[in-house]
Design brief:
This protein is of the alpha/beta class. It has helices at residues 21-32, 48-55, 70-75, 82-87, 107-118, 136-147, 160-170, 183-188, 230-237, 245-261, 271-278; strands spanning 7-12, 36-41, 62-65, 79-80, 92-95, 101-104, 129-132, 153-157, 174-178, 191-194, 218-221, 242-243. Bound molecules: 2'-monophosphoadenosine-5'-diphosphate.
Length: 279
């Protein structure tokens, strides 16, 4: 039921129709009995700023932002958290009643919580981590790992110049490597994270051999469609512990929900099963 007090939040993306976020947030809202609603917005490719301006002043409480607008979201904000600034991107915008727009990035927290759930033995501070890719998702992951205390993050990309630019933005703990010479980084890392778009249903899969990784190295893929990518299958067949992208998606939604609706998501809602059915 929509009332005179309904809190409105949503997600901005292009495309947005297949996003699982409305399903996740609305399941939590219903279970908690919160008077709120979470809806999709799909501006045209250059329409993000217009949309964000329209939301200013508290027309709605806030939005999640997904591909391809996360950098635009940071640029549209008057104030940004350290996580958003270091990631160079925002996945959460809050529209304050005084007209200010505040940006945050909960993707990194989502990544770390997904590791805590699916690979609880792993400790970010004990050794280097390899992040594959150098787009927004990779930079966000590398930034979060550094903020969480990773002693070193290898940013490994097919186009090494892009990895170098990301490493330069992140400071001395980040080091760029070309994908063709990744084995040195892979063999010393406690975790290997695919933050490329390779492996997405329909796209070509990621050509990275994991044989030289350590036995205990945790392998994670941000891609969750399919849930078990060829990259994660390779890891499982080698006996490596794995973390999937769906867990990250759910865990980044938790702090976003709290920011929009003022309380934590209710316990006991199996949003993972709901999301799996919808995948
Ligand atoms: P996002 O913003 O989601 O991170 P992006 O900016 O389009 O996405 O970046 C996609 C990343 O996936 C890039 O790092 C890209 O490598 P290049 O910079 O060399 O293009 C990487 N990528 C995409 N397909 C790939 C493939 N088949 N093998 C290796 N890397 C791939």
């Amino acid at each position: 039921m929509i009332s005179g007090k309904t809190i409105v939040a949503g997600i901005v993306g292009r495309p947005v129709a297949h996003s699982l976020s409305p399903l996740i947030h609305n399941a939590w809202l219903a279970a908690a009995g919160i008077d709120g609603v979470y809806v999709p917005f799909a501006p045209d490719a250059h329409g993000f700023d217009r949309l964000a301006k329209g939301f200013r002043g508290g027309a709605i409480r806030g939005v999640n932002v997904t591909v391809p607008f996360k950098e635009d979201a940071l640029a549209a904000a008057d104030r940004a958290s350290e996580a958003a600034r270091l990631a160079g991107a925002a996945n959460v915008l809050l529209f304050e009643p005084d007209g200010r727009t505040v940006a945050d990035n909960t993707d990194g927290l989502g990544l770390l919580r997904a590791f805590a759930v699916q690979a609880p033995q792993w400790d970010v501070q004990t050794g280097p981590v390899t992040v594959l890719g150098a787009g927004g998702a990779a930079r966000g992951a590398a930034a979060a790992l550094i903020l969480a205390g990773a002693p070193k993050v290898f940013v490994v990309n097919r186009t090494v110049a892009k990895a170098e630019a990301v490493a330069a933005a992140l400071g001395p703990k980040a080091t760029a490597r070309p994908l063709s010479h990744a084995v040195g980084a892979l063999s010393v890392s406690t975790a290997v994270i695919n933050a490329t778009s390779a492996g997405l249903s329909g796209a070509e899969s990621l050509d990275v051999a994991l044989e030289k990784t350590q036995d205990a190295a945790v392998v994670m893929d941000m891609v969750y469609k399919p849930l078990e990518t060829p990259f994660l299958r390779q890891a499982r067949e080698l006996g490596r512990p794995t973390v999937d992208g769906l867990e990250m998606l759910i865990r980044q939604a938790e702090p976003a929900f709290e920011a929009f609706f003022g309380e934590r998501p209710p316990a006991g809602v199996d949003v993972r099963s709901l999301a799996l059915k919808a995948l």
